[in-house]
Design brief:
single chain; alpha/beta; six-stranded mixed β-sheet; four-stranded antiparallel β-sheet; 9 helices; about 25% strand; globular
Length: about 350
């Protein structure tokens, strides 16, 4: 972080906005924990309703961790991989917060964690092909990552913005990824910028996290990367507001940031892309915040896709009867009214609140 930023503070950004109580103290300093996949998983066979797939497995079949459960029906869709090794109990349907019911496969884990062999080379022999084959989904845009990148290239995008402005209360998953994997996140951001051919790569980070800003700034030394600390007013995290703040470009009503030459990705997408590109791992888990005043062990967890939300509540412990369960952030999330909802590929948080 430069001396000027230290002295003068962050770029002020847009006029107005809300400085909200953050309620992050219970989770911000806790390392990411892995939630074991030792209960039946109800895995949606589509990343989203728009991602059409065809089912590849049958009841009674044994699957390996990372094996395709469904194949994309077209170039704009994604395969779905098994988060665990185990046996297919049945083909069913899973309730998802954004999409309602999606077709699913119920998997009984066998505890062996046997995985499909890693590839010697990239499937598809291309950067985009690897993202597609590993099922990487850009949740903030609700598109497969390879489709978003192709759209950005086709639109002539000149800037890639990594949006780490996690300004909604309770949410800390993106912060923890930047704290625990700063080099890996910066490396992946640079790879994506190179693949897209953009002229600028900008990392927007809340100024209040000064240590993180300094660490990321040290990681980008010698690279063409701009680290921009911003005030943490809400809704600074919204891509359209962020583009206005950073690039002074306004998106027309109903438009998209790609219309003004910018692409915006979240650290959660960077993390999934890094697993795919650097480690040959498909997106079978999500890094998410589990918090709220009803939660005994609030934190950031690595959770397998298909985990029932009610099982999350059991694992983290509840302090009393729950009045409301929220999928996502408290301002932009969805209230869950069903007990059969599951963790999906675009889950960033689940919040439990007391009566």
């Amino acid at each position: 972080m430069s001396l000027l930023v230290d002295l003068l503070g962050p770029r002020q950004g847009f006029e107005g906005g809300l400085f909200l109580p953050d309620f992050k103290s219970a989770t911000a300093r806790r390392p990411i924990e892995t939630m074991p996949a030792d209960v039946p998983l109800n895995v949606p066979l589509q990343a989203a309703a728009s991602c059409r797939t065809r089912t590849l497995v049958s009841p009674g079949e044994r699957v390996l961790q990372g094996q395709w459960l469904s194949a994309p029906a077209d170039a704009n869709s994604l395969p779905v991989h098994s988060p665990v090794s185990g046996r297919i109990v049945e083909l069913s349907r899973a309730w998802t917060a954004r999409e309602g019911y999606l077709p699913s496969a119920v998997i009984e884990p066998d505890g062996r964690a046997e995985s499909v062999p890693q590839q010697v080379g990239w499937q598809g022999e291309s950067f985009m092909g690897q993202l597609a084959n590993k099922g990487v989904f850009a949740a903030s845009s609700r598109k497969p990552a390879h489709v978003l990148l192709q759209d950005a290239i086709a639109s002539g995008a000149t800037e890639l913005i990594i949006n780490a402005m996690e300004t909604e209360p309770y949410l800390t998953a993106e912060l923890r990824l930047l704290v625990e994997q700063p080099g890996r996140m910066v490396d992946m951001a640079c790879e994506l910028a190179d693949a897209m051919g953009v002229s600028r790569l900008i990392l927007a980070i809340p100024y209040r996290h000064r240590r993180v800003v300094r660490r990321i700034t040290s990681e980008v030394q010698g690279r063409h990367v701009e680290v921009v600390p911003l005030s943490n007013s809400y809704p600074q995290c919204h891509p359209i507001i962020l583009v206005k703040t950073l690039l002074e470009r306004e998106v027309s009503p109903g438009g998209d940031v790609l219309d003004v030459g910018a692409a915006v990705l979240s650290p959660l997408t960077l993390h999934a892309a890094a697993d795919a590109i650097f480690s040959d791992r498909p997106q079978t888990q999500v890094v998410m915040t589990i918090s709220g005043d009803a939660v005994e062990h609030a934190g950031t967890y690595r959770v397998p896709i298909g985990m029932p939300i009610r099982r999350l509540a059991e694992r983290v412990g509840l302090l009393g009867p729950v009045e409301q369960t929220v999928w996502g952030g408290p301002l932009t999330g969805v209230a869950l009214t069903r007990d059969d909802a599951v963790v999906t590929i675009d889950t960033a948080a689940v919040l439990f609140f007391l009566k």
